[in-house]
Amino acid sequence: MHRRHFSTATALTALSYSRVLGANDRAQLGYIGLGNRGDQVHDGFLEWGDARTAAICDLKSSYLDLAEKKAKDHGHDTPKRYADWRKLIEDKSLDAVVIATPDHWHALQMIAACDAGKDVYCEKPLSLTVFEGRRMVEAAERNKRVVQVGIHRRSAKFLQEAAAYVQSGALGKITLAQGWHLTNEWPTGLGAAPEGPPPSEAEWDAWLGPAPKVPYNRNRMYYNFRWFYNYSGGQVTNFGVHYVDMLRWCLGKDAPKAVTVMGGKYAIDDNREIPDTLQAMWDYDGVMMVFTQINANAAPGNALKTEMMIRGTKGTMYLNLDRWEVVPEVITELPLPQRTPVDRNLEKGYNPSKKPVLEARKSTGYPTAQPHARNFLDCIKSRAKCNCDVLTGHLSTSATLIANIAYKTRSYLEWDARAEKFTNNAAANQLLHYKYRPPWKLA
Ligand SMILES: NC(=O)c1ccc[n+]([C@@H]2O[C@H](COP(=O)([O-])OP(=O)(O)OC[C@H]3O[C@@H](n4cnc5c(N)ncnc54)[C@H](O)[C@@H]3O)[C@@H](O)[C@H]2O)c1
Question: What pLDDT score was predicted for residue 222?
Answer without folding.
Answer: 98
